[in-house]
Amino acid sequence: MEYEAVIGLETHVQLKTKSKMWCGCxxxxxxxxxxxxxxxxxxxxxxxxxxxxxxxxxxxxxxxLLNCTIPRHAKFxxxxxxxxxxxxxxxxxxxxxxxxxxxxxxxEFNGPxxxxxxxxxxxxxxxxxxxxxxxxxxxRHSGVDFNRAGVPLLEIVSEPDLTSAxxxxxxxxxxxxxxxxxGVSDCDMxxxxxxxxxxxxxxxxxxxALGAKIEIKNMNSFSGVRRAAEYEIxxxxxxxxxxGKLVQSTRRWDDVAGITEEMRTKEHAHDYRYFPEPDLMPMxxxxxxxxxxxxxxxxxPLTRKQRLMRDYQLPAGDAxxxxxxxxxxxxxxxxxxxAKNPKxxxxxxxxxxxxxxxxxxxxLRKAEEAEFGIPNSEFRIPNSLALADLKFKPEALxxxxxxxxxxxxxxxxxxxxxxxxxxxxQAPAAIVQAKGLAQVSDTGAIEKFCxxxxxxxxxxxxxxxxxxxxxxxxxxxxxxxxxxGKANPALVGEILERKLKG
Length: 502
Known about the structure:
Order of helices and strands: EHEEEEEEEHEEHEEEHHHHHHHHHHHH
Largest sheet: 8 strands, mixed
Low-confidence stretches: none
Number of helices: 15
Number of strands: 13
């Protein structure tokens, strides 16, 4: 019997706010342990939570980005459980009436479950809650840091629409790309801003009933999610294939051993004794408030990629660069809307401008490290070069493309022009004139160069006449050398062929 996997994900994302969910403590990574705390986020008796309005806005913004409906009535609930990193012994979350529901994410994926390279995963809900503290385990004891406790956390729950580890990996990357570009979260996994619970079951192919759901808890990397899912799917199939029975449970992923291990049998909702939070009023967002949040909705990355391919006839690879780098994509569109050949503009931006910016910022990084004596990863470069700091105007790229296309300069000369305009901001035409880079297209002058090259290189001439057509390239190189790189390469080839064949 053949089996198939059914996967659903619960993705926890810290929201990009300056303060915590219920108090004024800083939402800041890297502070000394237990310094961003107060009686409210520590759950002391008698304190009252006050909702962070920006967190409420970001939650609704997420719902809009994920094509969700926004209910006009939502509330918070207490989820009761004891664990050392939860000082209140309960978590404030949303249970039966969340702030967003019934959405979906479209993403690029080639594999089972996709159509024409696209797949869709439905979103059950994206509900708002609070994060807990962080446990650190030592040899003989454990420590808890409550700086993270009370940080606004969004839990995005998918329907069990995923069918493979690779599909889950592609979905997670698209989801976090949307949230990062939308300003919802920085999605820095190294700082614990994104964590994931993976729910997996298997069933005979062709059936619809779900098998026992087994959850892999607290995954902190997408590659880990993929590896854990691959292992767990194979493990479950092996169990049921041999007549064994799977029981709903929670497991952990051992990344070193590459296996999942059982932690406990799975709790059900009633085990948490949910009840409405008595200290918080239900939320009832109005039309004006939602309309204000809607102004922050961005063009989704996949939509932008598809539009760039459609409107500017860009290949998928170029559009992918502008999909992932929003600022660079905006710069391209600012130039390309005036261009006759948008593809040529994209080439210069991707292959030249992007590379030069990276080189310059690497130079600045090394200079700062040398000056301050500490790794640059510990601070942001204050004088890093951005697109807004470029010395040349965007229109200069159009001028450069035109100089190449009308054969005023060669491709190699254009590289020299770009380097100069990047450094000085001077206009391309002025650089060409000052450096004498204009391409020679005068037939008489090029014929003289060709005659000299033929006379000085009898070996390649004989090879070409003997049938070795590649020898023509050697003669072209000699002509370009004689012309100091200014001869029109197309004319050089035509004239050499005519003379050698004649």
